[in-house]
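# nightly structure sweep
# worker-07 picked up a monomer target from the shared queue
# config: single-sequence mode, recycle default, output format = structure tokens
# input follows
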Amino acid sequence: MFQFTATPPLSLYIHFPWCVRKCPYCDFNSHAVKDALPEAAYVDALLADLEQELPSVWGRTVQSIFMGGGTPSLFSPAAIDRLLAGIRARLPLKPDAEITLEANPGTVEQTRFEGYRQAGINRLSIGVQSLNPEHLRVLGRIHSADEARAAAQAARHAGFDRINLDLMFGLPQQTPEQALADLDALIALRPGHISWYQLTLEPNTLFHAHPPTLPDDDTRWAMQEQGQARLAEQGYGQYEVSAFARNDQRCRHNLNYWKFGDYLGIGAGAHGKVTDASRQAISRRWKKRHPKDYLAAAGDGRFIAGQRDLECREAIFEFALNRFRLKQGFTLAEFQAACGLPAADIQAVITRARDDGLLDFNGKQVKHTDTGWRFLDDLVERFLPGEADHAGHCTH
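# output follows
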């Protein structure tokens, strides 16, 4: 059973389920706007949803807020301002809390960015995905390369000094030369943080149903190696599988996920994870997925679509799945604090992974080898409940 002596850091995720047009690669809970955006009603629903979550986190302080989607930047600065004011009235925030809003370059201009800044947003994450016109067309993006450049410039002029730009590689028909040129063009915009990740064909997407021709594995590996080298040359340190940052620009909110911290999730389809030290439990809860169902729940308060407590074997796997995304690895003390379980529960699987050349382990610190980093999926699979049961996990 779990034995928590303290609760992990707490964040808040807010989901906005609308976008201008659904991208063919997107498997997120997003829906194209067909009628007027129900701004006021959705903010009301979000705050009512948060009210229901409060008893599970009484007395705890929120260290970060992330507004994701969908396209949160479809909502006006006034709506975001009312939402943040409502959150502050209900939850204590750290004085320097990181508050991020995702934006699509096709839905913003400088005055809108200025409004978000005044409302309290202090970090922007802008979905560029590519600066190649043909690849933008294939990806179904609603913005041009020039609009993406203008959005990054407008964000900086609006006073944002914490800006993330998203970029994909491994795009249909893309060559390594094109991928590197795309990355160079993005670096030229001087963001403090770059999320650079490979396009994958996810179930329930148009690309999965009608797969485009993607570069082969060797070509994608070449793109990855060349891109990582270029990012390092330009001062972007890789701290996670697809995250690169200069100076102190690491995404605090995502770091909390990867360190197996706690987070409330409000909004259509949002998921949350909360540690309850009084019950010695880790609870997962998720909300009604479709925007119409979620908005309707504001009338009866039935936002929750499901909830369950994790078993300790599941907690071990989720910790590994998240924590091994970070290049820094972890200590056994950090595992004990995050999972409320003794280090002995993972000692055997760590030792075997070390013996197989996937991990370095000095008795306290666990860190991937170069081989373990390259074959990360193989490493994490060793922590699956079925794989690890014979190692004596959770027998105490």
